[in-house]
Amino acid sequence: MMTDPFGTNTWFYVFRQEPGHQKVTQQTLTLTFNSGGVLTNIDNKPALTSQ
């Protein structure tokens, strides 16, 4: 888990996986909290794809 260096209202969870000798995949889950500590947003971003 990484935390936002500019405040504690956003938490980042980064999941990175390399199964066997396949390509590495990464997914990022971002949780945003209000000033009262209540979860206000969940953003689940899939892996970036190269074009």
TrEMBL record:
The gene is smpA. Residues 1-42 form the Outer membrane protein assembly factor BamE domain. The keyword Heme does not apply. The keyword Nucleus does not apply. Keywords: Cell outer membrane, Lipoprotein, Membrane, Signal. GO terms for molecular function: protein-macromolecule adaptor activity. One of its GO terms (cellular component) is Bam protein complex. PANTHER family: OUTER MEMBRANE PROTEIN ASSEMBLY FACTOR BAME. This is Outer membrane lipoprotein SmpA. One of its GO terms (biological process) is Gram-negative-bacterium-type cell outer membrane assembly. Gene3D superfamilies: 3.30.1450.10. InterPro entries: BamE, BamE-like, BamE_dom. Pfam families: BamE (PF04355). It comes from the Bacteria.
